[in-house]
Amino acid sequence: MKFTIPKSKIYSCVQTVMNAVPTRTTLPVLSNLLLEVVDSKLKIAATDLDVSVITTTPVTSTKKEAITIPAKTFYDILRELPESDVEIHVTENRMEIKADRGSYKLSGIPAEEYPKLPSVNLAKEIKMPGEDLVRMIKKTIYAVSTDETRPALNGILWQTSGSNMQMVATDGHRLSRMSLKNTKLKGLHEDVIIPPKILNLLLKLSEGEEKQLGVIFSENSLIFNLGETVLISRLIEGPYPNFEQVIPKDSDKKLMINKEFLTGAVRRMSILANTLTHQVKFSLKKDILELSSINYDLGGEAKESVPCNYSGEPLEIGYNSSYVLDILKQLEGDEVVFELGTEVSAGKIYSTQKKEGEDYLCLLMPLRLAE
Amino acid sequence: MIAPRPMKHNSGEIIKYSVSPKTNEVRFPDHPKEPVILHVDMDAFFASVEQKERPWLAGKPVIVGGDPQKRCGVVTAASYAAREYGIKAGMSLLAARRLCPHAVFLIGIHGEKYEYVSSRLVKIFRQFTPQVEPYSIDEAFLDITGCERLFGPPMELGRKLKEKVKAELGLSCSVGIAPSKLLAKLASSLNKPNGLTIIPKEKIRAILNPLDVTELCGIGRSTAKVLSHLGIHTAGELASYPVEVLKRKFGIVGEWLHFMANGIDCSPVISGAIPDKSMGHSRTLPRDIDDPKQIASILLGLSSLVARRLRKGGFLGRTITLRLRYSDFFSLTRSETIPRPTDSEHAIFKVAFKLALGLVSGIRKIRLLGVSVSQLIRDEKPLQIPLPLVEYRDKREEVYSVMDRIRDKFGEDVIRWGGATVFG
């Protein structure tokens, strides 16, 4: 294997795949990157067996050859090299990197020892607007559970049905659902639960790009094709719990409030809230929302009244302030609505401002008020 | 002067204190520096309760024990008259009968009666101080620091307490008073029965030193054996033994032995119920078995008992332990920890049965099976209410609560899961 490539090019490829290199692993070869030349293309790959990242870039070498080399060391060398062309030369499991003034050699592990990466069947690829996908992920990913005893909740549920699709995430205390209508997909019916790692990678790598991206649904993995870079992830086994059932149907207690006012007030309440529960109390009376929090350890108490639009029965309800802030951060527009039931049932939270063809909904369960 | 912040005691109670402006010394108005701890130990508790109920048994050798028909015939308690014949708790009923054939044997008696008397005792103790730590069914620690103004000096309080127990329940107890829990427990054991012993600070060494190590709380036969190999027989010898050597020999326990022999114990009296560390049930089987079906039936029955107790006490547990004794009396335990704490008999059974299957051998049959659950936590309603997602709800939970209600009303053995052995 012998080829010459601009340093910036190979550095950015390595930077991309580094995201999949596991920090701790029982399989030492996973700390390496796989470099493979096939048909004048250099393929660099990394995997932690759950998520794999593969980038391809054209090179002049034609001979089919492969090697794995320590990822961190290779990355560190490339990072420190000055901007110019570098020559990579591999013989007998040793790699030599020749730059302007010097040469750097390091040993690798034979490519045969690297786990086989899932194959990418481009024939089954479906193109969709990257923008839509990124938006759906951003709006839902905050609610993904990290509780390993409920594996189905450790990912985002992505449902496609005809030209509609939606993403749902919940950690059992709050739920976010983003639905899109009239997407350009037609006739696709898939229900998959995607681990957040690949989605975070997708957010990171597609930043600012608003182009089409390819998606391949396969048996137990999901593939995103970004052009030069391909992301592959295993899927989480279902079934996903029936979330539709927990979305309250109708409510007689509707609170409409300015988002900025509420956000500011909840932030201030959270400073003096109990450090474990982060509890802030919402006391609703006609057209007035009273917020309060107490922290006995600090001897702290906070209280604030925010004007709002409310005409239901008076209600006192407790929430985890950081959960409330997480949701308010995601909602667009100036005005938000809380549809409430009782002090122990789910609240439906959404923005009054809606984008065409889009439906975004958050559910939040209350905290039991201690007293 | 800085405004004092409330400080929390182990019991959850808020302790007020002030800081002296002159000396910067912290003062606890309710907690002077020298603690006074009182330990109450009932005299031959089970036997005394039975004697009180049947006055004609007073003064006679009375033995309370398990049911030999069910092959679990050991002495659980013996009255003082019976102890004179050398009868001790834990010996087989057969041996007890041989030692004292004319004793009154009360066999297979339910524990609920004793639990009731025990709860009445705690109520009496609480009339003296709110700081009561029930230590077992017939023992308790009381923190009586600063009670002088209410009840007089500690000795006087001890006497009043004994009188009250005698008057209200007709039972006698032994009381020990000392600066720490360790020493108070020791003091109560020095003059049994019906004793009242105080160990003042200056006499600690003199009282401790000549004691045999086995008289110290927590030193059993096996520890004593290892100690005797080191040439340690009395608490005094243990106290002066180099702590490093003890640590090497016993690990962390070595240090604890050293402190104990020196009368050092800073553990506070924690008021409230006895914190349960584990809950379990075991049974010697009517005959030896090795058929997995029968094992399953026994284990489901035992798991039901354990789960019922967990739910009654409001606990969830994570570690499930299987105890097994083969027909040749070789015993084993195996445990497994599950990810989510449970109080479901089926979750407990699943693990216990899996563990048991790994221990069934074609050669030896099984004589005893036991299931216990540890790593207990309180099943408190979480402050954060969960979304009622279906995947989360165990349908059996509803059945459990119905079964529990039926048992509360009509008795423990009126309902059982199909295939489960019922234990009376």
Your description of this structure?
The complex is a heterodimer of chains A (371) and B (424). By secondary structure, chain A is α+β, with helices and mostly antiparallel strands. Chain A is 18% helix and 42% strand. Chain A has 3 domains: 2-113, Roll (DNA Polymerase III, Chain A, domain 2), CATH 3.10.150; 125-244, DNA Polymerase III, Chain A, domain 2, CATH 3.10.150.10; 248-364, Roll (DNA Polymerase III, Chain A, domain 2). Chain A is built from 6 helices and 25 strands. In chain A, helix 5 (259-271) runs antiparallel to helix 6. Chain A starts with a strand and ends in a 7-residue tail after the last strand. Chain B contains 15 helices and 17 strands. Chain B has a domain at 278-414: DNA polymerase, Y-family, little finger domain (Dna Ligase, domain 1), CATH 3.30.1490. The longest helix of chain B is centred in the C-terminal third of the chain and has 22 residues, at 292-313. Chain B has a 5-stranded mixed beta sheet. In chain B, strands 13, 14, 15, 16 and 17 form a 5-stranded antiparallel beta sheet that branches. In chain B, helix 13 packs antiparallel against helix 14. The A-B interface holds A 148-150, 152, 170, 172-175, 239-243, 245-246, 277, 279, 299, 320, 344, 346, 363, 365-368, 370 and B 5, 339-340, 381-392.
